[in-house]
Amino acid sequence: MDSVGRVTAGREGAEAPVSWLRAAGRGFAGRCPACGRGGLFKSFLKVREHCATCGQELYHHRADDLPPYIVIFVVGHVVGTGILLTEVEYDLPLWLPLTLWPALGLILSIALLQPAKGAVVGLQWAFGMHGFGGEAEPGTGGDAR
Ligand SMILES: [Zn+2]
């Protein structure tokens, strides 16, 4: 990290330091955290091996279960708050909340899962985690015998 808080680890041949917030934002938008131009995903949740634009290796990421946890946290709060507020404030017919809230929860979950994973990959890249920093992760079998 440089003197103004910009993360420099994990970058390979990039022009200027990228802040961790910008890297997460680029990942959230489905873009390469290094250059911001290449696509991050080759399918809905499958991250590309390398950026097609700048060549940044992306296979190091270990997003694992964090993106679903983030989505559950956010969607649970939005839907839970909506349920509580509408139940207290309005006298809705039963079919409406039984239709609205599960549908909203499903739509929000699907819509946020890829951006959440992209942001996690961007953060891992920005902080040089899991091999993004140029060093093999201990215990991954790289030089262990
Ligand atoms: Zn790139």
Blueprint (SSEs and pairs):
Elements: H1 20-28, H2 66-89, H3 95-126
Helix pairs in contact: 1-3, 2-3
Zinc ion (ZN) binds at residues 32, 34-35, 38, 51, 53-54, 56.
Please provide a written account of the structure.
With 145 residues, the chain is mostly helical. The chain has one domain. The protein is 45% helix and 0% strand. α1 crosses α3. The protein binds zinc ion. The site of zinc ion has 8 residues, from loops.
Q: What's the N-to-C terminus distance? A: 32 Å
List the secondary-structure elements in sequence, H or E: HHH
- Total number of β-strand segments? 0
Structural class: mainly alpha
Give the ligands present: zinc ion
Q: Average pLDDT, to the nearest integer?
A: 85
Bulk shape: elongated
Query: What is the beta-strand fraction?
Result: under 5%
The number of helical runs is 3
The helix fraction, in percent, is 40-55%
Uncertain ranges: 1-11, 141-145
| Radius of gyration computed on alpha carbons | 19 Å
Integer count of domains: 1
Biggest sheet descriptor: none
Q: Short summary of the structure?
A:
The protein is mostly helical and 145 residues long. It has helices at 20-28, 66-89, 95-126. Helix content is 45%, strand content 0%.
Label this structure with key terms:
145 residues, mainly alpha, 3 helices, 45% helix, elongated, disordered N terminus
